[in-house]
Design a protein that fits this description.
The chain is mainly α. It contains 9 helices and no strands. Helix 1 packs parallel to helix 3, helix 2 packs antiparallel against helix 3 and helix 3 runs parallel beside helix 5. The relative contact order is 0.13.
């Protein structure tokens, strides 16, 4: 018996509910970041599985949803694998994280969209200078580890 997969609208609703009340570093509702990453994936030619993963890419890492939820969710194995690949482990080195993303089909496009939104000058402009510099360097390093062209 084939389980019915969550629709794109249902995945978005789950992600929005899971991150309800959370804000990004600039104090904006976290769902704005998720929507921007999902739209970035769509604009880069991503498929529905990648778009679903974009909505959920931070849910486990941010403790908005559990690994058990992900394992049991009505999502494709590929979507689950992408979400898992994008979930940083405690104490994990950036190189190890990048290797897992590169080894997971479909994950790089989602991470590229995530990094693009995180590094958006408009988002960074409202942060304190030291935070802005630290994050800009962090995002540039991850882009390099992933073999992505630098922005700007």
């Amino acid at each position: 018996m084939t389980e019915t997969q969550l629709t794109p609208a249902e995945v978005e609703a789950v992600a929005r509910a899971a991150h309800e009340g959370q804000t990004d570093k600039a104090g904006r509702p976290y769902a704005e970041h998720l929507a921007a990453v999902a739209e970035g994936v769509r604009a880069r030619g991503g498929d529905p599985e990648q778009i679903a993963a974009a909505w959920l890419h931070d849910a486990i890492e941010d403790d908005a949803l559990t690994r058990q939820w992900l394992a049991a969710a009505a999502l494709t194995p590929r979507t689950k694998a992408i979400v898992d690949a994008l979930t940083k482990r405690p104490g994990e080195e950036a190189e190890e994280y990048a290797r897992r993303i590169l080894a997971t089909p479909g994950a790089l496009l989602v991470k590229e969209s995530d990094l693009a939104h995180n590094a958006d000058p408009g988002r960074l402009a409202v942060l304190p200078r030291a935070t802005r510099r630290r994050l800009t360097e962090k995002y540039a390093r991850m882009r390099a580890l992933l073999g992505l062209r630098s922005t700007g």
